[in-house]
Amino acid sequence: MSTHISYAEQHQLIEKLEIFKILGRDKHGHNILRIIGKFFPARIITVDALKSYLEEKIYPRLETKPFSVLYVHTGVQRSENFPGISALRSVYDSIPIKVKENLQALYFLHPGLQARLFLATFGRFLFSGGLYGKLRYISRIDYLWDHVRRNEVEIPEFVHDHDEDLEYRPMMDYGLESDHPRVYGAPAVDSPVSMYSMRCIS
């Protein structure tokens, strides 16, 4: 879908939603780039605007020393906040070599069955440079603390809510039971996504 807002406005939106944030460290002392997939407004942000934002705001801070990525997949849906496979490949190909070399681990929190199957099938072909080998699936937040310093990384409330649901409904992990629509049909009232949506729809 084409966008009607400028690069500068798209950059401001990415910044406001805090989709990408460098905060905290893992158990090896590496800085963490936290990515919240649910917050990404895929219908509004173009691939070129995303790449230019990363080039200006994120990559320069990751070129000097090793780091890890915490990708929070909770609540990601293809039609709303998933940019698409070709977009992901384009973004990955544009990452500077030094940044790729500094990446130590990619912690993938709450991977659904579809994500696991896709990465198991195509991950090695799509992502070169050993990224697939650095991938670590984290099915529960409690397991995340085995790798990441608990008090240094902020996890949104909706992620905790989903984690709690998984404890009581484990079949959701395997795609045998869908997410509860009451909980995941819309963002929480105080989330940056809903605040932006309400302003822009009017």
UniProtKB/TrEMBL annotation:
A Pfam family per the record: CRAL_TRIO_2
Q: Which InterPro entries match?
A: CRAL-TRIO_dom (IPR001251), CRAL-TRIO_dom_sf (IPR036865)
Where is the CRAL-TRIO domain positioned along the sequence?
13-164
The source's domain of life comes to Eukaryota
Q: What is this protein called?
A: CRAL-TRIO domain-containing protein
